[in-house]
Amino acid sequence: MPENAAPSLHIALPVMDEQEFLPRTLECIAAQLYPHFKVYICVNQPDAYWDDATSRGIAERNLSTLKQLLQQSDPRIFVIDHASPGHGWKGKKHGVGQARKVIMDEISRHAAPDDVVISLDADTSFPENYFQTVAENFRRNPDAVAASLPYYHPLPKDPSAARAILRYEIYMRHYFLNLARIGSPYAFTAMGSAMAFTVKAYRAIGGMTPKLSGEDFYFLQKLRKYGTVLLWNETMVFPEARFSDRVFFGTGPAMIKGAAGDWSSYPIYPDSLFKALLETYLTAPLLFLETFDTEVIRFLKRALKEEDPFRLLRENHSDSLHFIRAFHEKLDGLRILQFLKTHNNQSEQGDEANLFDFLDKYCPGSIKGLQLNREHFSFCSSPLTELEKIRNFLFEKEMEVRVNSERL
Questions:
Q1: Which domains does the chain carry?
Q2: Which pLDDT score is estimated for 263?
């Protein structure tokens, strides 16, 4: 590709039982102003669904979707069949992670190194200039390997679903803002419907590792270790907020658990844990000389079963700059999340109190401005309008961080 030329785009779209939402997503694709793109759609399911009475309906609906897609005449759309009898997933390799990998591997076989892959979900809408802004983003940032793109869930009509997605987004945005505040390299949101990357980066990291859930988290983490992940884009995606149990964790399962009153997997972490991470970040240059004791380092020793997690890093890196990079690769996004989860039970406060502490300390005046009552606020019972005000406020703060990252 000529220097500073806009890249060709390849859209990766896994589909399973999406007859309700897929037409809208395809309409959004068809309306795109940017002309240089191809779409790869993988209709998929385990082959065993054909012999399972409880799942056969999904298989039949997938087959109907597959036939409709094969009959369309758009030469930019390529359909991959992993749904018809005999072509579904067999054995342990199945799920959305496997579908994404199959699509992305197919793209990698045909695309040029500087081409860009946009990952979507089949229940996502976006404006007509979405592809154009993503292409321009990578053209403007030729050294970037990936982008974690902005997102916003429209509120569903069902009040329980609306409450669940608002609570989940508050968790996600609170987590993002705190990691950004302490300068973590892993301050990004991994969503399969809101990420993009270059083909050469995909090849360099060995492609996507298929997982039954969370494949986007591990994939984006690998890309971040390889190079720069962009956070800002002029447009965003609007994923559907709905109850779904087709994966083990993520938005759909979080909403199901949350609607049943269980947010234990998605807590509002206390400020003290982010302070502990920041303390260890700030001492990273000193760790090049010797390992000392912090709460996070004690956690790493237990998690990695290593008496000194940094001894080999010191031996393999002759200067502190390369050591610090290796330090962040060791204390990566997964280890950060594990640290937060394992130490969250030390907090005596609930999620509401932790959220208000964050707003008090890092967004002065926001509680008064949002007209929130600390004593009476509850994720379970406060009006949806209050949760929506908080979600929108955190969204605006996150967008400020994303915009500022473009200027660094």
A1: 9-151+189-231 (3.90.550.10), 271-344 (no CATH)
A2: 84
Residue 180 has pLDDT above 80, yes or no: yes
Contacts of 246 (CB under 8 A, 6+ apart): 16, 17, 95, 96, 252
CA dist 340 and 201 (Å) reads 29
Q: At what angle do helices 295-304 and 271-282 cross, to 10 degrees?
A: 90
Q: What does the radius of gyration of the chain's CA atoms come to, in whole angstroms? A: 22
CA 171 to each of CA 165, 167, 358, 395: distance values in angstroms, whole numbers, following the listed order: 10, 6, 12, 11
Convert the pLDDT of each residue in 289-308 to its tens digit: 999 899 999 999 999 999 99
Distance (Å, whole) CA 162 – CA 78: 35
Contact between 94 and 39 (Cβ < 8 Å): no
pTM, two decimals, is: 0.94
**CA angle at residue 249 from 381 to 220, to 5 degrees?**
120
361: amino acid identity, one letter: K
- Give dist(CA 269, CA 266) in Å, integer: 9
